[in-house]
Design brief:
Blueprint (H helix, E strand, L loop, with lengths): L3 H10 L4 E2 L2 E2 L3 H4 L13 H17 L7 E5 L16 E2 L3 E4 L6 E5 L6 E3 L10 E9 L9 E7 L3 E8 L3 E7 L6 E5 L11 E8 L4 E6 L2 E7 L10 E4 L2 E3 L2 E3 L3 E10 L5 H7 L2 H6 E3 L6 E3 L10 E4 L1 H12 L5 H8 L6 H10 L6 E4 L10 E10 L2 E14 L9 E12 L31 E12 L5 E5 L9 E3 L5 E6 L1
């Protein structure tokens, strides 16, 4: 489980001084160490793998600091980490919950369902952008209007909201409440219990508004009345109309941001998570491609690969010996499959730079573990991972007589993250790609850091079976008789 605050904290550690021309601020907040710090570079291939993960995590966090005037992760506190000190104060109907990684602010739809900054956050006479992750509660009614973010004067100047007449919407209102303009989705696609990212952009120069849903353009409109200043309060979870607060949110809101400028379409895609899902994919549609990009621009970092192709690219980047010629000589392929790696590790035929490791307890950071699926999974020969650390033995479940279970932190590329958020011992053995319990398929895929459970025979210490994650039951636990395992040290 990785909070957005933790994801953002990786920027300074990874050496990013600026993103898209904007200085990262505040330094104190963004310099917080991640919960998975980089491994020492005595395993240079592991360092390169981790670096790719680090930048993909920045993309998953929607890292964009240029123009921020307010940023509320809402991960258990109302602090504004933009550096402007616009902390929000929750009302009585607001509670801190953990429906997804890092937590969020849940609102019960009552008069106390809000969090407020008393005063102006964005200058509504000029261009601005607001964004938020929102989730309507399963008990909410799609016949009601719910406002996620607004800023008030005599009435709410703008509203980022759900409107049953339109679906997801971004509105600008006249100061006398005589009318409004709306950027909206073409059809009402809102669903209860589903996390959705909304971004509303006001471009004062073009005199237009634009709504983005999930980082993609959803609708726009021309503004037909003059701008006016709203300085009475910035609200999360409600709007002001007719002198009273209305549209109280019933659900959860997370990662609210305000920018003092109009974001571009590419920036809205970044903030809304779309870029992350395009740049980090478990890729089966053609040749793999892995790009270590510019430290100043996370959007230039890309991994379109499967497990074996990703780790092969990592070796080629980090190790002078790891050339196409080497892999063709020893594996008959410039990018071997996972099953090919497993066979070569077991037989000692992977060449002079891959030395077999037989005992689970002997695993070290940077070692490779390969599994052969033996034709049991269509289109997939197996799986291969890189060891970050052996966390120690584990006896909390799925134990087998005569075997010792080890929790191993790994780097890999997968379409199926390791673990289920909030279930069992997941918090002890998390995965950076997991957002929630994935019932709605919101988890990320591609490269990341997770945990697998490997078993050793008490008699020999050698691999005896594995589980995909600490949450896996019998259907995702396999013995070496069914799926052989072999490991090797890169040297």
């Amino acid at each position: 489980m990785v909070s957005r605050r933790g994801l953002l904290g990786g920027a300074a550690v990874a050496g990013v001084a600026s993103v898209a021309g904007g200085t990262l601020r505040p330094a104190a907040a963004l310099a917080e160490p991640l919960d998975t710090p980089l491994t020492p570079v005595d395993a240079p291939h592991l360092a390169q793998a981790e670096l790719m993960v680090r930048y993909q995590r920045m993309l998953a966090a929607g890292l964009l600091a240029d123009g921020l005037v307010g940023h509320w992760p809402l991960d258990g506190a109302g602090a504004d980490i933009s550096g402007y000190g616009h902390d929000v104060a929750p009302g009585a109907g607001a509670t801190w919950t953990k429906l997804r990684a890092g937590g969020e602010l849940s609102l019960d739809g009552t008069s106390g369902a809000y969090a407020q900054v008393p005063g102006r956050v964005v200058n509504t006479l000029a261009s601005f952008t607001v964004s938020a992750w929102v989730r309507l509660a399963e008990t909410a009614s799609l016949a009601n209007m719910y406002t996620a973010v607004s800023q008030d004067g005599t009435t709410s100047r703008f509203l980022l909201q759900y409107d049953p007449a339109y679906g997801w919407a971004f509105k600008l209102r006249r100061p006398d409440e005589s009318g409004f303009v709306v950027a909206r989705t073409a059809t009402n696609t809102a669903q209860l219990g589903v996390w959705t990212h909304l971004t509303g952009v006001y471009d004062a120069a073009a005199n237009t508004i634009q709504l983005y849903v999930g980082g993609q353009p959803a609708g726009g409109a021309a503004v037909t009345f003059p701008a006016w200043d709203a300085a009475a309060g910035f609200n999360i979870g409600r709007a002001l109309f007719g002198g009273a607060y209305v549209n109280r949110f019933n659900g959860a809101i997370d990662d609210v941001r305000a920018y003092g400028r109009a974001l571009t379409a590419a920036e809205a895609a970044l903030v809304g998570g779309y870029t992350a899902r395009q740049n980090n994919r478990y890729y089966t549609e053609g040749s793999s491609s892995v790009t270590w990009g510019s430290p100043a621009d996370p959007t230039t970092w890309m991994s379109l690969a499967r497990c074996s192709s990703f780790l092969t690219w990592v070796l080629k980047r980090a190790c002078p010996w790891a050339t196409d010629a080497y892999f063709r000589t020893w594996f008959d392929d410039a990018i071997p499959e996972a099953a090919d790696y497993r066979q070569a590790f077991a037989d000692g035929t992977g060449g002079p730079h891959l030395r077999r490791i037989t005992r689970v307890a002997d695993l070290r950071p940077g070692d490779l573990i390969a599994i052969d699926y033996r034709g049991t999974v269509s289109g997939n020969t197996g799986h291969i991972v890189m060891v970050r650390s052996v966390k120690g033995t584990y006896s909390g479940g799925m134990n087998f007589s005569g075997e010792t279970q080890y929790a191993v932190e790994i780097v890999d590329c997968t379409s199926d993250a390791h673990g289920m958020y909030g279930k069992g011992s997941y918090d002890l053995y998390p995965d950076t790609r997991v957002v929630e319990d994935d019932l709605r398929k919101t988890n990320f895929e591609g490269v990341g850091i997770g945990h697998m459970m490997f078993y050793a025979s008490d008699a020999t210490g050698e691999f005896s079976r594995y589980r995909w994650s600490v949450n896996s039951g019998s259907t995702n636990t396999h013995s070496v008789a069914d799926r052989p395992i072999a490991a090797a040290r890169v040297c």
